[in-house]
Amino acid sequence: MIVRPLVLRDPMDAVRRLKGLANLTFLDSAMSHPTLGRFSFVAADPFGSFVVDGGRVTWNGAPVDLPGEAAEPLGRRALAALKARLALYRQPSVPGLPPFQGGAAGYLAYDFGRLLERLPEPAVAQGGVPALQLHFYDVVLSWDHRENRVWLVSTGWPEADPVRRDLRAARRADEVEALLAAPPSADEGAATAELSWRSNVTRAEFEAAVARTREYILAGDIFQANIAQRFAATLPAGFDPLAFYAERLRRVNKATFAAYLDYGALKVASSSPERFAQVYDGRVETRPIKGTIRRSAHPAEDMHLSAVLAASEKDRAENVMIVDLLRNDLSRVCRPHTVHVPQLNGLESYATVHHLVSVVSGALKDGLDAVDLLAAAFPGGSITGAPKIRAMEIITELERIERGVYCGSIGYFGFDGAADTNIAIRTVSFVGGEAIVWAGGGMTALSNPADEYDETIVKARRVLEAFRPEEGAR
């Protein structure tokens, strides 16, 4: 492995210089936070791609021989194959560097979760979005924003021979440094556009779905479920998703677990504030968000709104239910008596909303890793409901369309075993000439259908408004 310090303060400069390479991944800590938002990572031009799409699992386009029995759900067999693939490139971590030092990065769509359990398919497919895309990167650029330091890490994989691996690591590091030394290319098109957004449901239909969810709760099927609506708009010629992310979304809706993915026909811009799961040195942490209220530009009103959220019986109960679900999920892969809740219903404030956030942590059992955690806990309970499987069945029935990347996870799985993933909320998918944005919320027995609809609009508004030209630019 080769590690070189760099003088490159803004990760966006690197993204603009490397955007001509295939399958670019930018994991972006765009918002500072006392304990989060410390690291950012940029990687492109992977040596391999692990993809689950249309019932097929491929490595660099070729079918993968899946372990396990044919009767086992495809998603579980795919994760077993992913775990085996990552093990081929196992390497120790280098102390003092940011935690992603080469590995797989990309996303798992929410719909991959259905493949883990053989759940029914929605009535409408979301074309152009594979259930899983993870690209294997031998070179990673990493930023430590707290220390103001930047590194290039080149692993030399997939060369198996140590001498050849060292030679490849040096060559690849030189190639990337040469690209970084060139002037950054300008964004190719417009960052904003006046778009005509359309939802997949009317207000009445969404409120009816909330009412139906309450009926399921009162009948004893579930305790809660996350129900969302989908907004889509046709993109004009010349619109540039990267410019939108760089100049608009990451500025107006800064978040600790943001990301930009350019995977050819599919591009994703995420401003998520929520961690799904981190694995580091055998420890697991998940940070579910449940409970949201808008912010105000007036300090007194903003403080009042945060106090209303902190005291909300409905939101606090919803958060506790998801914490219980995640404690159960983590207990499947963590050592006995190590699963704890160091934070319950903590108030955290972001650009446009206040949230209630809890923290659940544990210590992995010997021999288990981040992929095993995925098998036990994906998708995150905060965006399904509880019990998880029945809630997912109800989501499929009421939403009727695949969620795609929304409510899945974006992040990395390092060759050294480290991993960190978000919950892909506040996220835009660019596919098929459209921009797609989802927004939803957790429904409980206390849910008011009209209020729940309004909450989805609050959550979606900041992302949708990021597309609009600023007043002075119109």
TrEMBL record:
Signal sequence extent: none
Record InterPro entries: ADC_synth_comp_1 (IPR005802), ADC_synthase (IPR005801), Anth_synth_I-like (IPR019999), Anth_synth_I_N (IPR006805), Chorismate_C (IPR015890)
Keyword list, A-Z: Transferase
Protein name: aminodeoxychorismate synthase
Keyword flag Nuclease: no
Domain Anthranilate synthase component I N-terminal: 10-152
Gene Ontology terms, MF aspect: 4-amino-4-deoxychorismate synthase activity
Chorismate-utilising enzyme C-terminal domain sequence ranges: 203-459
Entry EC no(s): 2.6.1.85
